[in-house]
Amino acid sequence: MTAPSLSRAARATCALLALVAAASAPARDAQAQASAAPDPQREHPPAQQPPAYGAPGSDSQALPAVPAELEDVRAALDKYRDWTVAVHDGYFSSVGCVTYPAAGGAGRVPYVAGGMGVHFLNPASIGSELDPARPQILIYEPTGDGLRLAAAEWFVPLATGVTARPALFGRDFDGPMEGHHPLMPGELHHYDLHVWLWKENPAGVFSPTNPALRCPAGATTIQEEAPRIVSHP
């Protein structure tokens, strides 16, 4: 190939490269502009959703009227409206939502028909001594995909050596009774006192069951019979 031919080939190659460069320039400019543009997702990430399951202040349900003594107890326990705080402090869920479709009959604790909710138990707090600010159990009501704090329960097994029926807030405990099978061994005889501090209870603030509490249909709802009354040795 002669030198003039090489010169023409070189010029053709240069012209082709120039055309390619000119054609690709708009795409490069657009890509550069897109890279330089602010990313709203990066600069302003989506706000985190508040915790579900009844975080403090997350519901507008009116609180029931209670005596002044119980208002102080409710204020002390109000942090547990966030169930994660309860778990952090040693309360662990029994998972099942307990309901009593029938009232307690002869030989059983005289429950009214109603729900009792999801129990969170603090094993470290169980003993014969009672602390009004430290219930052994917190009770939550299922609300869609969440849990709302509804009541507190003071729970005293006979095995703690308790010698007489406990009383708190001027109210005698219910029992002694069998354990609430199947979430509790029937042999776990005990006294207990429910106090509905966060949910209105048509049966009364100290009623073990609440006709206004509904457990959702599903595998985690447990229908029980009122426990049998037992003797205190």
Q: Would you write up a description of this structure?
A:
- Residues 1-32 and 44-58 have low confidence and may be disordered.
- This protein has a seven-stranded mixed β-sheet.
- The protein has 233 residues and is an alpha+beta fold.
- It contains four helices and nine strands, in the order ααααβββββββββ.
- It has helices at residues 3-36, 40-43, 68-77, 83-88, and strands spanning 92-100, 114-121, 137-143, 146-157, 167-168, 171-172, 174-177, 190-195, 221-223.
- The radius of gyration is 33 Å and the shape is globular.
**Helical amount among residues, as a percent range?**
10-25%
Rg calculated over all Cα atoms: 33 Å
Low-confidence parts lasting 5 or more residues at pLDDT below 50? 1-32, 44-58
Record the strand order, biggest sheet: 7-8-4-3-2-1-9
Task: Choose one word for the global shape.
Answer: globular
State which percent range the strand residues make up. Answer: 15-25%
Characterize the largest beta sheet: strand count, sense, and whether it forms a barrel. Answer: 7 strands, mixed
The number of helical segments is 4
Helix vs. strand class: alpha+beta
- What separation lies between the terminal Cα atoms? 118 Å
Q: What integer is the average pLDDT?
A: 83
What is the H/E order? Answer: HHHHEEEEEEEEE
Count of strand segments = 9
Briefly summarize what is shown.
By secondary structure, this protein is α+β, with helices and mostly antiparallel strands.
